[in-house]
Structure formats: C-alpha cells, structure tokens
Design brief:
Largest sheet: 8 strands, antiparallel
Low-confidence stretches: 837-868, 913-922, 933-938, 950-956, 990-997
Helix content: 25-40%
DNA sequence: ATGTAACGGGG
DNA sequence: GTGTACGTTACAT
C-alpha cells in the first residue's frame, strides 16, 4: 500500500470483466510521473420524484420492470430545486449497473405511471463521481492504494485506489506540464483545392516541445529521405513509417498538452484520416483501450485525447484577443512579433520535389509553424486562466477550454446542491425549450439600465470619474438572497420573512434559508478577496501570475450565474429570478445616479449596468481622486452588503458618442506619485474591422489620439481633411488601401457578385494558371472606371504595374466617411464640414480654442518620415510646406506667421517616429550568414550555427540629423535644446555600432 | 426592421 | 458517452 499525490488531468471510466464500472483518474505528480488510478465500487444512479404516497409502489414497479439493469432503489429525503421548500421530500434513488443504462431507462421511467419527474439523470458518469466525492478538475488528490499493472495503462504507474482524498491547497503545487505543438504539411494532388485527406498524403510533421525532448526543442519528421545535413529532422521511407514514428514520439515524450494552430479543424482530423488509411489505431492518449475521439459538428470539431489536454491556439487567441485576422502569420506578428517563414503554399509540391535547399526551406517552414503556436501559448500564458477555471468550477481542463458557461455553473450547482440535499432537474428537452421560448416572448427578459449619455467631448477642467459596482449581479444575488431555491411560488407563503424585488417576485430572507446561488457566490467572493489579498503579499512573479489567473477565474465564474438563470437550456430556468436580478440592478444604478446628483451636485454623464461616469470640474487629479473615493465610500454605506461601489478610474478627457460607445484617456498615479497619461480605453468604437482597409484603422486611431490626448477637435478635423486630400491626390500608399476577402468556392457558385469573386475570374482569364484558387485570400483595391464596385476590383500588383487610378470616391464614401462621421457627428461636425477641404478653420477660431499653441496641423507622423522632408501645413491657406524651404517663419503663399511651436512639433514628431524606427536588430548566423529578423526558439540557425545580433540605424534618423541645422535658426533656444536632447539620446542608443547580446 | 447566406482558417 | 449543436457580418427582402 502506498500513498501518492497527483494533479487530476483527466477522468473517465471503464467496465471491468464482471460488467462493473471502474472510475479511472489520470494525473501527474510533482515529480513529473504520471499515474492512472482505478476506483472501484462507484455506481451510477439518478433520482425519481413520485406522486405523494405512491413512492413505494413506483419503486417496486421500477425494480421489477428493469430487472438486471436496476441494482437497487432506495429512498432519500431531498429538497426539490424550484421554489422555497419548507421541508425535504421523499425521492427514489435508482441505482443501475452501468452508466449507459441511465440513458437507456430514464425516458421510460419518466413516462411511468405515478412518476412526476426524473432528476440528475443526465450527468456524465465521471462527473457524477467527481461531484459526489468533491473532486475538482486540475486539483490535487492524495491516493492511497496499491500499485498494479494492467493491460490498459500507459502512464508511469498504475494504482488501484483504496481511498482518494482531496488535498486542500491554497496555491496549486508546482507540476510542470509537458506541452507539444505540431503541424502537418500535405502534398495536394489538386493545387486548386485544399488537400484531400482521403488521398493526399502528409509529407511532413513538425513538432515543438516544451520542455525539450531528448535535448531537442523541435523535431521535423520528413516522409522521404533528404540529401542534406539538417539538424533535428528524421527521415522516413513514406508516410506510413512517419505516422507510426509520430505516435511513437507522442508516447515517448508523453505530453500533457497537445497544441498547434487550427489543429481542431485541420491537422488532427487530417491526421486521423491518414492513420485510418493505414489501419493504424489512433492511440495518442494515455490509455491503451481508447483512441482519439473526434466529434464533428456543423462547423466545429471537438477532439478528445484520453489523459491529455487538447488546446488549439487559434481558438484560444480568438477568445482572448480581438484582431483583424486570425491567420498564424498575423497573430504571431501581433502577439509575439514574429512572422512565419515566407513561403507560398502553392510552392509546396515544387519544394518537396526540389533540390536540397528547397526541401530545407520547406522543413524550416514547417518547423516554424509548430514553434509559433507553442510560443504564443507560453508567452501569452493562454492556459493559466483555463487551468484555474478548472480548479474553481470543477470541470476537467479539457472541458473548460472548450465548453460554454452553462456547464461550469451547473458543475458548481450540482456540487453545492449535493452538500445541501438539493437535487437538480435534467436539462430541458426540445419541447421544454420551446415552452420557455414562448414564455419569454410573453414575459420578456428585461435587461440592465443604460443611462442616457450626455454626448460630447469632455476635457480641460472637466474630469470624468468612473465608479463601478464590484460584481454587481453576484452582489445583488447575495444581498437579496435571490435564488430559485428561495423564490416564493405561492402567495400563501408570504407570512415567511422575505424580500420583494422591484419586479414583484418574493424571495425568503437569508435568515430563513440562504439560497444555493447566494451561498456559492458568497463563497466565491470570499475566496476572491482572499486570493487578492495573497496577491498583495506575493513576491514571486510566477505565483503572482497564478493567483491573478485564479481571481480572474473566480470573477468569470461569479459573473456566469446571472446569465444562467435566463438561459433557455439551463436546468433551472426562471424568468422571475433573472428579472429580479436585473430589477435590483436597475434600482441600484438609478439610486446611485440620484444620490450623486442630489447629495453632491455632480453631473452623471453616463452609466451602463453597473457603472456611472461622473463629471467634476477640477485641474487637480488628487482632488478628483479624493472626490471619487468619497462618493464610493458614502454610497456603498447606503446599500446592503456586499454591494460595493468602487472608485475605478479618472479620465483626463472623455469622448462619448452614444450608448455603449465611448473612449477615454486614463490618468494613473505612477510610482513617483505623479499623475501620468495612460492608455486610451475604448468601448464600442472600433478601429479595426475586417472589412476596413488599413488606412481607415490608422485614421481612426490618429483622430482619437488627437481628440483625447491633444483635445483638439479642429486639428482632428484638419487631419482628416489632409488624409482626404492625400487620397484624392493619390498620395496614399497602395498597401493601405488593400482589402481582402477569401474565395471560399468556385467563382461560378457565387450568386451575388462580390468584388473578390469578379476579380478572381478576371485574373483567371488574364493569367490562366496563376489565378487564385479556392480557399485563397484575394487582395484587391477598387479602381476608377465604369461598372459596379465589384467590376472595378483590381489586383494591387496589376494596379502598380499599370499605374491604374484608385477610386478615391469609393475609399472616401465607403471606407473613410462612415466611421469618421460616426466619430465626428456627436461633436457637432457634419459630413459636409469634414469634406470641405478648402475651407480651413479660420485662424481666428483656431486661436480661440487653442491659444497660440498650434497654428499648423502636422501631417501624420508615419507618413512624414517617408516624405522627402519634414512638412507642416499652413492652417490659413492649407498649403503643405517643406520646413527646409521655409524662409523665416512665414508661409510663402499667404504670409501668415507660422509658430515656432508648430515647427518644433513637426520636428519632434519626426524624431519620435524616427526613434521608433531608429534601431533595427537583425540576427544572423555566424556560420552561414543567413539572417533572421527575430531570434529562433533555439537561438540557433537552421544550419546549426549560433545567432549573433546586429544593430543597424535606420535612414530616417540620418534624415532628421540633416534637417536639424537648417531649421534650428527658426526655433527658440528651448526648442532647439529639446531637439538636441532627443538626438543625443538617439546617439547614445545607436553608439555601439556593433554589439552582441 | 428582419431573415438568410457567407465566411473564417488550415495546405 | 447519463453531454450535443459557432458566431458574426453582409446582403437581400
């Protein structure tokens, strides 16, 4: 008999030779050894509610009718879930031999005479076991038992359990997960289509490991001999041999997590299909009796590998980051600043059959595609949140990564319900869902309050304080004891002490009985407070991160409960409960608004669900903070516990366009105690959208920046006009105008003619074989000419080569104007005004709003650096002026004076944007000289040589240096000095011309 | 306004 | 495995 501790990774069950279910737990100890634990004796069961007085008779009938299946019927006293129950009710506990039989008989039982309802008859057996034994996913277990050896296990050891105990742990023990990322390359027989797994072979499988495997971080399997010396590859005679070796490597490395990019929808299904081709069983998991389980949905696949976690980085990134596109190349660039190896997939067959250099290129391409997802996963810590969620809600890691909110909530409801003898209903069938849907149409689900925004821009003396209710809905549920278990169903019960919601629903007070949801939420909230406290004292960054992930997981869990009560497919659906929560929410926010306005006399300019934004007038951030704190404390005092209005942040300037759409420039107190401008928070204002070209995103961002950081509406308008002017003059670089759309099927299959489809046809006629094929992304720009927009879509390269003219009208109307208008309209600037390029802002009005600080509007800094010289635009006559050609400080056309401030700003901007571009670090191999833009994972070149970093100076810096003496005479000494300072700083950075790090 | 078709991303 | 099931946006009506 031994005792062993392990983190629970997976759980399922097997049926032994005498047809009894045996629970199987797979876990990993702190020593890194994996273990399979078999638990015997746990039996499947469910509950039946019979007509009062009929219990015995129904029990007998069930036992009789399902002889051989039902192994026992007993009686237990339980609380029914819906409505406040004064006492427990007698229910039948029906036990069956094997788990699948529950499903088999539950509908029959449901229809039997005398049966009212069946409870908890749809809980997967492994969860039934975990729930009943208080075992949570990814939690620490202490197992007592004997070591055994079966024919089913692949783990380091196997045990037959005598006892499984949960170890209470505040901080998760350190168990290092082994992760493996992989990627496949195929050889398509038809280069117009995606490779077909029924016939096109896999030619390469690349793998990345963390931690390393046999000293290797990566390994590439190649299905044919390669006549070149390449490190970390293995070659085979054909696909089958390679596939077998791949499975062998999985077994040998034994990863806890398998990842990759889009593996759920591509690599894994493809791989499984190829394995089937050779009749190789897909035993990639940690058990020998089960292979990989593939569940294909409409457009979604779930893949389960026993004992291992499958996580698709693409999915994780999609749920964590809002990006324009989710291609690996784009995602890697945005998140970890790395790119894929440049290679057109159409060239794969050519490279595959090519010379040693070509195949080398293909191998390194594949290698990188396995490395990138793993790096993203690690660097962005994409797993932390899920592992903590698993520990908080109890689901297995695998199910948390994929599953929706409802499973997590139910896991907790079942666990806490079990402790209190509350049984829960089964999930609703179609009929019940339909009934609920109809009910919802009649009695609608009322949402939260969104206060009418006082549209406009706030800056200068105005400061906006943001106050938030900490976990509003969870707090309300706790404060007013709202739950399906406390809801008073009949008026007759109203002599019980209760609370009436604004909607009229009544809930017994917590002194009578605490509700299930309030209990769970109260514990979660206390737990979160504890975790946050621990975070404050935690010095170790790794542990701090983990605690942070945990408090986030708890927050996510808490916020899921409200939604669950109004979810059509919930086990317990109660509009009365859902509406009571939002009802109290509306009451709370209205009350808060009223108090702030009446007691303090401040203006509430906006509020949504659980937050209010208060306008105060002060230049002093300390004072603003003081006011915020005061409001927070005093209002919280007026509300029942645990409702808490927290002072969240100060916006130095704030722009609100409409409900749910605003942007604010945050100020925060730095370590030096001083206030600093911080990030711009944005809500509902999008600057990146798939259907917009880059120009639009860039313009939107710049406008917001000018509005919030410089508080200069005129300048923002002017900037927009400049862009429009540039667009009309064809000065906008073509790549900023490119739109992309992917060709999902053959052109003729499209009904509506879309630009990229028409273009695809055009290209096919023009260049024949090189034309884009199905599944490819097509880049296009809209050019001038006749016909619909679709007919005027053109290939950017073709446009370049033939000097076609861009349809500036289209880009203005369809791309730039819509978002710009939405931004400017609430500020009282019409479309007309935006477009009126020639009528600039009068100097008079400009000076009125901005003092004499900026007569010029500086062109977008990015563009400036690419222009020949540094330029400013004269505000009076709108001419673009070259700083070098300026005689004195007068505009050569209208002779209005140009302020030194403006020139200084122009130069400074040029310097700053130049600084960003100033240094470029390149990495090159000391052996073969091949250069990389980023260091490789291994810090080694593909030839095996060491990578050495090289620092180079960009030209733009030199340009500014050249310009400086020419303009310095136009500047005040202070400005000159400031510029010199910056240049000096730049010199310092650049000074060591070559160094290695 | 409201319903329906298209698309993603992998090679 | 005692489980089901995308989510968003553009275009057409």
């Amino acid at each position: 008999m031994i005792t062993r501790e392990m983190i629970l990774l997976d759980c399922d069950y097997i049926v032994d030779s005498s047809n009894r279910p045996v629970i199987r737990l797979i876990g990993k100890g702190t020593d890194g050894r994996t273990c399979t634990v078999y638990v015997e004796g746990f039996k499947p069961y469910f509950y039946v509610l019979a007509r009062e007085g009929d219990e015995r008779r129904v029990a007998e009938r069930i036992a009789e009718r399902f002889q051989g299946i039902v192994t026992g019927v007993s009686f237990e006293r339980k609380f029914l879930p819906l409505g406040y129950q004064r006492s427990k009710r007698e229910v039948l506990r029906v036990e069956v031999r094997v788990p699948t039989q529950v499903k088999e008989i539950r509908d029959k039982v449901r229809k039997m005479e005398g049966v009212i309802e069946v409870f908890e008859a749809d809980i997967p057996f492994r969860y039934r076991y975990m729930i009943d034994n208080g075992i949570y996913g990814y939690s620490l277990l202490r197992v007592k038992g004997e070591v055994i050896k079966t024919s089913l296990g692949k783990t380091s050891m196997e045990m037959k359990a005598h006892e499984v105990r949960v170890v209470e742990d505040e901080v998760a023990p350190k168990v290092e997960l082994k992760m493996m990322s992989f990627d496949i390359e195929c050889l398509p027989s038809n280069d117009k289509l995606l490779p077909d797994p029924s016939k096109d072979p896999i030619i390469i499988i690349s793998i990345a490991f963390y931690p390393s495997f046999d000293g290797k971080d990566t390994l590439v399997l190649v299905s044919r001999p390669v006549n070149a010396k390449i490190d970390n590859i293995e070659c085979f005679n054909g696909e089958e041999e390679m596939l077998r070796r791949f499975l062998e490597i999985i077994d040998a490395y034994d990863p806890d997590l398998i990842t990759g990019y889009n593996i759920l929808n591509f690599d894994l299904p493809y791989l499984l299909r190829r394995l089937k081709e050779y009749n190789i069983p897909s035993k990639m998991g940690r058990v020998l009796d089960k292979g990989v389980q593939l569940k294909k949905g409409e457009r979604e696949t779930r893949i389960l590998i026993p004992g291992r976690i499958v996580a698709d980085v693409q999915e994780l990134v999609k749920s964590e980051f809002h990006l324009k596109r989710y291609t690996l190349d784009h995602v890697a660039e945005k998140l970890i600043n790395e790119k894929k190896v440049e290679l057109d997939y159409k060239d794969i067959p050519k490279l595959w059959n090519g010379n040693s250099n070509e195949i080398k290129k293909l191998i390194e391409y594949a290698r990188k595609d396995a490395i990138l997802p793993l790096k993203i996963l690690l660097e962005k810590r994409l797993l932390d949140k899920y592992l903590e969620l698993s520990r908080v809600c109890g689901l297995l890691p695998q199910d948390v990564i994929y599953g929706g909110q409802s499973a997590k909530v139910e896991s907790l409801l079942l666990r806490y319900g079990k402790k209190r003898d509350i049984i829960l209903p089964c999930k609703p069938d179609d009929q019940e869902i339909e009934r609920r849907r109809k009910e919802r149409e009649k009695k609608e689900l009322k949402g939260a309050t969104v206060l009418e925004p006082k549209v406009g821009i706030y800056s200068g003396d105005d400061k906006i304080l943001v106050l938030d209710f900490r976990s509003l809905y969870p707090s309300i549920i706790i404060a007013y004891n709202i739950c399906f278990t406390t809801l008073l169903l009949e008026d007759g019960d109203s002599e019980v002490s209760h609370i009436t919601a604004p909607t009229g629903a009544k809930f017994v007070s917590k002194e009578v009985r605490e509700g299930l949801m309030p209990e769970i939420l109260r514990e979660l909230m206390e737990f979160r407070v504890k975790v946050k406290k621990m975070m404050k004292e935690e010095k170790d960054p790794e542990r701090y991160r983990q605690l942070d992930a945990r408090q986030l997981a708890i927050k996510i869990m808490m916020n899921s409960f409200y939604g669950y009560t109004g979810y059509l497919k919930a086990r317990i659906y109660s509009l009365d409960v859902a509406n009571a929560i939002t009802g109290f929410g509306r009451q709370t926010i209205e009350f808060t608004k009223q108090k702030v306005e009446e007691t303090y006399g401040y203006e509430v300019i906006y509020g949504d669900t659980d937050s209010i934004m208060v306008r105060i007038k002060t230049r002093n951030f300390d004072e603003a903070e003081e006011i915020g704190r005061k409001i927070s404390i005093e209002i919280s005092r007026l509300l029942p516990e645990p409702l808490l209005l927290e002072f969240e942040k100060i916006y130095k300037s704030f722009l609100i366009l409409s409900k749910k759409r605003y942007a604010g420039l945050r100020v925060t107190r730095g370590d030096d105690g001083k206030w600093h401008e911080d990030v711009i928070d944005m809500k509902g204002i999008e600057t990146v959208r798939r259907e917009w070209c880059d120009l639009v995103s860039e313009v939107m961002e710049t406008i917001l920046d000018i509005l919030l950081r410089e508080n200069n509406v005129e300048k923002a308008v002017n900037y927009f006009r400049t862009v429009v002017k540039d667009l009309k003059e064809g000065k906008i670089p073509l790549e900023k105008l490119i739109l992309t759309r992917s060709l999902s099927k053959l052109p003729k299959e499209y009904k509506a003619k879309q630009p990229h489809v028409v273009l695809a046809e055009k290209l096919r006629k023009r260049q024949g074989k090189m034309a884009p094929s199905v599944g490819e992304r097509i880049a296009f720009v809209i050019v001038k000419g006749k016909g619909s927009i679709a007919e005027r879509a053109e290939d950017p390269e073709y446009v370049m080569e033939n000097g076609l003219e861009i349809d500036d009208e289209y880009y203005l109307e369809k791309q730039l104007l819509q978002p710009a208008e939405r931004l400017f309209k609430p500020l009282g600037i019409s479309k007309k005004e935006l477009l009126n390029v020639n009528v600039g802002v009068t100097l008079q009005s400009f000076l009125e709003t901005n003092g004499n600080s900026g007569v010029m509007s500086v062109r977008s800094s990015m563009e400036m650096i690419f222009d020949d010289n540094i330029q400013v635009v004269c505000e009076r006559c709108n001419t673009t002026l070259d700083i070098l050609k300026l005689k004195g400080r007068f505009c050569p056309k209208c002779f209005s004076q140009i302020s030194e401030e403006a020139i200084y700003n122009a130069i400074l901007r040029a310097i700053l944007s130049g600084m960003r571009e100033l240094i470029s670090v390149k990495y090159s191999c000391e052996k073969c000289g091949r250069s990389y833009s980023r260091p490789t994972l291994t810090q080694r070149c593909m030839c095996g040589g060491r990578l050495v970093s090289e620092i180079s100076i960009k030209e733009s810096y030199e340009k500014i240096r050249k310009v400086k003496p020419a303009v310095s005479s136009m500047l005040t000494p202070e400005h000159r000095e400031a510029i010199d300072e910056v240049l000096k700083l730049a010199d310092l950075i650049v000074a060591p011309k070559s160094s290695s790090s």
